[in-house]
């Protein structure tokens, strides 16, 4: 097959496209033509999936941060309780050291 028929076929395909450029056909080495439209759809789907995964990751990170904050609050409460216990012990020691004189 020479170049002539191929070129005329290309012109036909271009002619069908019209001003709006209806689906452009690419001739692949493998043979059957595939449209750019399909490629674009696949890429968009992949991007959407990636965005969804990123959103899930962000949600997981937020949950982890909330858990860490809760743990910190619990630790602070424990520290406060320990301080109160120390104060009570100090008060008891003071009472023992200062027996009231009758």
Structure characteristics:
102 residues; mainly alpha; 75% helix
Polypeptide structure, described:
By secondary structure, the chain is mainly α. The chain is built from two helices and two strands. The chain has helices at 3-17, 36-97; strands at 25-26, 34-35. Strands 1-2 form a two-stranded antiparallel sheet. The termini are far apart. The model has no long low-confidence stretch (mean pLDDT 73). Residues 13-40 are annotated as: Disordered.
Radius of gyration in whole Å, from Cα?
38 Å
How would you sum up the global shape?
rod-shaped
Whole-number average pLDDT? 73
| Helical content (DSSP H or I, runs of 4+) | over 70%
Structural class category: mainly alpha
Strand content: under 5%
Order of helices and strands: HEEH
User: Could you give the distance between the termini?
Assistant: 127 Å
Number of helices: 2
Could you give a short account of the major beta sheet? 2 strands, antiparallel
| Low-confidence spans | none
What's this model, at a glance?
The chain is mainly α.
Chart the SSEs and their pairings.
Elements: H1 3-17, E1 25-26, E2 34-35, H2 36-97
Antiparallel strand pairs: 1-2
Region (Disordered): 13-40
């Amino acid at each position: 097959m020479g170049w002539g028929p191929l070129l005329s076929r290309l012109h036909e395909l271009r002619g069908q496209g019209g001003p709006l450029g209806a689906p452009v056909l690419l001739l692949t080495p493998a043979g059957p033509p595939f449209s750019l439209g399909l490629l674009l759809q696949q890429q968009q789907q992949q991007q959407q999936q990636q965005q969804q995964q990123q959103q899930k990751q962000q949600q997981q990170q937020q949950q982890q941060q909330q858990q860490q904050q809760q743990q910190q609050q619990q630790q602070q409460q424990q520290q406060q309780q320990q301080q109160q216990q120390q104060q009570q012990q100090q008060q008891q020691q003071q009472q023992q050291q200062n027996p009231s004189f009758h």
